[in-house]
């Protein structure tokens, strides 16, 4: 299976798992999927932008316009929803 | 006082960390900017950086909603400062370089144009000797990232006029910044306190007393710093930090400002902090 196929068929569970692993690696702490990363002080404003770039590159999406708001990156669950929504929009555009 | 964005046309000289920060802030608030640097490669990099920083500012809700962005023009010619209402010098903290830029800009602009130095440590009165009209020169120490931190340190030189203070206050208000004004002194308030702190933190790591994470963790956890000194150093850029420490050491003779061996080694190795992806910390891919 190629990387492209893996991304094309990725599920919410898989995204969530990848994000939790990415965060554990970068901030050296285990977080819960519904934990507010900014309110808890685990993630700085500078790291927030790295999260945006990571999601864009990993899941082949573009976070633009009103989607580029901190609320979409507060929790792993919110990021997962955003990725799925933008990926579905891409698929609809391609159809 | 000109607090309306349409009254301002900024020229920023220097497209590094601070030049791009200030350009992001200004254009994000609708003020047109002419950004000047030495060559097209530097300007292309600066354009990309400003675009990333505008995204970062939007992400953090730091820009006024619904306001059209100010136009960004780039140029390799210092002559293009001539039409600005304010010129901001944001080049490296090396006296000869700043002198060259300020002297040239001062000769090109109309009388009544505010000249701002985003100096880190060099006193404003020292710079006053480099310009045609020292009364139009004022120091503004923007923080990094300038578009996220509202407070700025404004340095009034002994010759800075009241009209210049009014002008700079208007510009800062138009960019949503709040100013605290101080008198002139090498390093001013922020860097006279901050730079020896970062340098001493580097010495503690160098001596093996504690790791970077532990030094920062103590300052954050015990003293309530939002970012530890070494993470702050990485954000400033360790090469700029060393330049500024040299300015402070030469002018004040304070041993705590003599750049530590560890800082010098990191600069030699090209580990300049966040902008190169590694300094005291590893940032992975450079993202903003």
Mean pLDDT of chain A: 86
Largest sheet of chain B: 8 strands, mixed
Strand % of chain A is under 5%
What's the domain count of chain A?
1
Going by CATH, what is the homologous superfamily of chain A?
Answer: ACP-like
Largest protein-protein interface: A-B, 14 and 17 residues
CATH architecture title of the largest domain in chain B: 3-Layer(aba) Sandwich
Tally of helical runs of chain A: 4
Q: Which strand-content bin applies to the residues of chain B? A: 5-15%
What form of chain A results from the Cα inertia axes?
A: globular
The percent range for helix content of chain B is 40-55%
Structural class of chain A: mainly alpha
Quaternary arrangement of the chains shown? heterodimer
| Portion in helices of chain A | 55-70%
Mean of pLDDT of chain B: 94
The CATH architecture of chain A: Orthogonal Bundle
| Lateral arrangement of strands in the main beta sheet of chain B | 3-2-1-4-5-6-7-8
Write the H/E string of chain B, N to C.
EHEHEEHEHEEHEHHHHH
Instruction: Write down the Rg of chain B.
Output: 18 Å
Under CATH, the homologous superfamily of the largest domain in chain B reads NAD(P)-binding Rossmann-like Domain
């Amino acid at each position: 299976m190629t990387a492209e196929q893996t991304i094309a068929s990725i599920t919410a569970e898989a995204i969530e798992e990848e994000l939790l692993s990415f965060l554990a690696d970068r901030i050296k702490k285990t977080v819960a999927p519904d934990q507010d990363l900014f309110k808890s002080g685990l993630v700085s404003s500078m790291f927030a932008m790295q999260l945006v770039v990571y999601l864009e590159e990993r899941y082949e999406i573009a976070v633009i316009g009103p989607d580029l708001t901190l609320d979409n990156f507060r929790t792993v669950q919110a990021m997962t929803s955003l990725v799925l929504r933008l990926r579905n929009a891409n698929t609809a555009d391609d159809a | 006082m000109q607090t309306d964005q349409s009254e301002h046309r900024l020229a920023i000289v220097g497209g590094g960390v601070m030049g791009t920060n200030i350009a992001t802030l200004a254009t994000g608030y609708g003020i047109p900017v002419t950004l000047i640097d030495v060559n097209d490669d530097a300007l292309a990099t600066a354009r990309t950086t400003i675009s990333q920083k505008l995204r970062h500012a939007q992400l953090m809700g730091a820009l006024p909603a619904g306001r059209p962005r100010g136009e960004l023009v780039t140029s390799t010619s210092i002559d293009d400062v001539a039409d600005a209402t304010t010129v901001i010098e944001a080049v490296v903290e090396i006296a000869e370089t700043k002198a060259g830029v300020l002297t040239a800009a001062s000769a090109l602009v109309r009388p009544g144009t505010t000249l701002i130095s985003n100096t880190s440590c060099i006193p404003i009165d020292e710079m006053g000797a480099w310009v045609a009209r020292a009364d139009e020169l004022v120091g503004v120490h923007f923080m990094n990232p300038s578009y996220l931190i509202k407070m700025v340190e404004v340095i009034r030189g002994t010759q800075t006029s009241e009209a210049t203070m009014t002008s700079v206050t208007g510009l800062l208000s138009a960019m949503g910044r709040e100013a605290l004004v101080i008198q002139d002194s090498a390093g001013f308030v922020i860097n006279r306190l901050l730079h020896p702190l970062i340098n001493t933190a580097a010495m503690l790591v160098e001596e093996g007393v504690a790791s970077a994470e532990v030094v920062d963790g103590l300052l954050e956890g015990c003293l309530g710093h939002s970012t530890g000194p070494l993470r702050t150093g990485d954000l400033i850029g360790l090469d700029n930090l060393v330049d500024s420490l040299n300015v402070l050491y030469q002018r004040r003779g304070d041993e705590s400002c003599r750049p530590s061996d560890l800082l010098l080694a990191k600069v030699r190795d090209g580990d300049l902090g966040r902008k190169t992806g590694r300094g005291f910390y590893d940032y992975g891919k450079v993202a903003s």
